[in-house]
UniProtKB/TrEMBL annotation:
Predominant location category: membrane
Record: residues binding K(+): T117, T118, G225, T320, N436
Function: Low-affinity potassium transport system. Interacts with Trk system potassium uptake protein TrkA.
UniProt key word Repeat: no
TM spans (from-to): 12-33, 45-64, 76-96, 139-158, 185-206, 241-259, 279-297, 309-330, 336-358, 394-416, 428-448, 460-481
Family under the similarity heading: Belongs to the TrkH potassium transport family.
Keyword terms: Cell inner membrane, Cell membrane, Ion transport, Membrane, Metal-binding, Potassium, Potassium transport, Transmembrane, Transmembrane helix, Transport
Protein name listed in UniProt: Trk system potassium uptake protein
Organism: Actibacterium naphthalenivorans
Cellular component terms (Gene Ontology): plasma membrane
Molecular function via GO: metal ion binding; potassium:chloride symporter activity
């Protein structure tokens, strides 16, 4: 008789504790900014930094004896989920103990939205908030984007989430052990991520932003997070800043693995990647259609139409969530295009979310193969991607993911309807949350441009959707299975 092996949580607790110590340490940056500006809100950041670092230190020390060189697959699943569920609890503390003195629901929503790089907000009056708070929101975005890039390149391929095991062949095969090469990959990612962020900040400065605005918007752009420094988002900056933002949002939604290869002196994978080609092609078509529609149906000048269409469609497609214009006011056709590109998302292995270009490409290839089999059942029709045959387990995981994504979208919309949210607001709230898009439509969003008018139950539904969308759905579903804890 074989007794079930219980999951050892101590290695997970050790890593999580260290991350909380680091998170608390980063709270000292907005504290220093507010202190330098003689803003009394620095007390809130100091208190929450101490609370977070002490909690993390106690957790790490209590679990230190069980530290191992690598995590098991189950521990990898649990750690991935724990980071995005627990870290926002502490990330929300400055919003509760200091400005804007939010209740826990709103503070946790804001922190989850930041760390999952969704970009939806329940805070109004951003222009009057202490600068430390604006910096902290940007840091939440930036940390989330870096963590997502790390998870997308290392954890998800091993976890076989949504067909991601296809990318184990990209030179980062970690099958069997989740973190054997993690330090090397993390260093490469960190250098690239910091480099892109600095370049974006300098570009925003050159486009006329203040230093704080440039830094926070650079954090939000490179992470595709969308937390800006103003209630007007990018409506505060017109002209060159929109072009700069569009460029860096596109770069941030390309596969990070290609940038790693590019930095290693091999540009060919980036230039020949079919996912990159498809993303840029679909993006050009979407922007072109929206701009053409607006030029035909409106009387605006050509350059502002092209600029605004480019910026806002890129923002939605990449899942960033910045806004520089009222997209809903452009008419029904642009809204439909926005909904569709939001359902696609950016490239796999980037900080973008939603279903992703890669998964849609494989879905179309599998659909085509199935249609061919209907006409010629005896014909062997192998699915190939980038010249490589796609294993059946990849396609099965893909079908499960896409089907689960659409089913979850529908179930959560119904849940929103059941608590009294109107159909339009409910649909777009779940769409923007599960896709980590950050762009809102509907009557409940129209008044403030935020999610603040949703009932608390609706905000928690959106929190669940944001977490599920960011963690690839199945990571959450696996943790709900009793077998996972006994396996």
């Amino acid at each position: 008789m074989h007794l079930p092996i219980m999951l050892d949580l101590r290695p997970v607790g050790y890593v999580l504790g260290l991350l909380l110590v680091a998170l608390g340490g980063l709270m000292l940056a907005p504290m220093a900014l507010d202190l330098a500006r003689h803003d009394t809100n620095w007390h809130a950041f100091l208190e929450t930094a101490i609370q977070t670092m002490l909690t993390g230190a106690v957790l790490a020390l209590s679990c230190q004896s069980r530290l191992t060189r690598s995590l098991s697959l189950r521990q990898g699943f649990l750690l991935t989920a724990a980071i995005w569920v627990i870290a926002p609890v502490f990330g929300a503390l400055p919003f509760v103990e200091g400005a804007p003195h939010a209740n826990f629901t709103d503070a946790y929503f804001e922190a989850v939205s930041g760390i999952t790089t969704t970009g939806s907000s329940v805070f109004t009056g951003l222009d009057s908030l202490p600068m430390g708070v604006l910096l902290w929101r940007g840091l939440l975005n930036w940390l989330g984007g870096l963590g997502i890039a790390f998870v997308a390149m290392i954890f998800l391929p091993v976890m076989r989430v949504g067909g991601m095991q296809f990318f184990r062949a990209e030179g980062f095969d970690t099958l069997g052990k989740v973190l054997p090469r993690a330090p090397d990959i993390a260093r490469m990612l960190l250098v690239l991520y910091v480099g892109l962020t600095l370049l974006a900040a300098l570009s925003y400065l050159a486009a006329g932003m203040t230093p704080l605005d440039a830094v926070v918007n650079a954090f939000a752009t490179i992470s595709t997070g969308g937390f800006s420094t103003s209630d007007a988002s990018f409506g505060k900056y017109s002209g060159p800043a929109e072009y700069v933002g569009a460029l860096f949002m596109i770069l941030a939604s390309l596969p990070y693995i290609r940038f790693v290869q590019l930095a290693a002196g091999n540009p060919r994978p980036l230039l020949s990647d079919p996912q990159v080609h498809a993303y840029l092609r679909w993006l050009a078509v979407a922007v072109g259609m929206v701009a053409a529609y607006r030029l035909v149906t409106g009387e605006e000048a050509t350059e502002p139409v092209l600029r605004q269409s480019l910026f806002n469609i890129v923002s939605i497609f990449s899942g960033t969530g910045f806004g520089s214009a009222d997209v809903a006011g452009w008419g029904p056709f642009p809204v439909v295009v926005a909904f569709l590109v939001g359902m696609i998302g950016g490239c796999t292995s980037s900080s973008s979310a939603s279903i992703s270009v890669f998964r849609w490409q494989l879905t179309f290839l599998e659909l085509r193969a199935q249609i061919v089999r209907l006409h010629a059942p005896s014909r062997m029709q192998a699915v190939k991607y980038d010249g490589r045959p796609v294993d059946r387990d990849v396609l099965d995981a893909l079908v499960l993911y896409v089907g689960g994504y659409i089913l979850t979208l529908g179930v959560l919309i119904i849940a929103m309807d059941m608590i009294g949210v109107d159909a339009e607001s409910a649909t777009f709230a779940v769409w923007t949350s599960i896709g980590n898009i950050g762009f809102g439509f509907g009557p409940l969003v129209a008044r403030t441009g935020t999610m603040t008018d949703f009932p608390d139950a609706g905000k928690w539904i959106m929190v669940l959707a944001m977490l599920m969308g960011r963690l690839g759905l199945l990571t959450i579903f696996v943790l709900l299975m009793p077998r996972f804890w006994r396996w």
